[in-house]
Amino acid sequence: MTVYHEIFEVIKARKAAFDKGEAPEKSYTCYLFEKGVDKICKKVGEEASETIIAAKNGDNDELMNEINDLLYHIMVLAVNQGLEWTDVEKVLDERNEKIGNLKEFHQTDKNT
User: CA 75 to CA 28: how far, in whole Å?
Assistant: First the structure.
């Protein structure tokens, strides 16, 4: 089991506890579930922006931290929406099997 699967399972356990009214005290994950999808999406957006800034600043130490923050919040969103991490991985596996999947870009003549 990868660390991502382990973290995802902890998030699922937090969601189950939250749904039963048994949320651990001071659990940030349960706080996010309490606030709902809008708050979770806001955090995903914030972490994505912080990831971009770290990359643009060339700070790889900060970038690694921001990528992990982003992945965590994406996992919380996935659990909140009823997805399994294996389902997300399955889509990535399917995309990985495609060879030469670069989309052709259509050029438009803006002068006509």
Answer: 13
Q: For the chain, list the domains and their CATH numbers.
A: 3-86 (1.10.287.1080)
Q: What's the whole-model pTM score?
A: 0.84
Residues 40, 80: contact at Cβ < 8 Å? Answer: yes
Distance between CA atoms of residues 8 and 15, nearest Å:
11
- Token look-up 């706080």 returns 31
**Mean residue pLDDT across the chain:** 91
B/e letters for 37-76, b = 16+ CB within 10 Å, e = fewer, are eeebeebbeebbebbeebeeeeeeeebeebbebbebbbbb
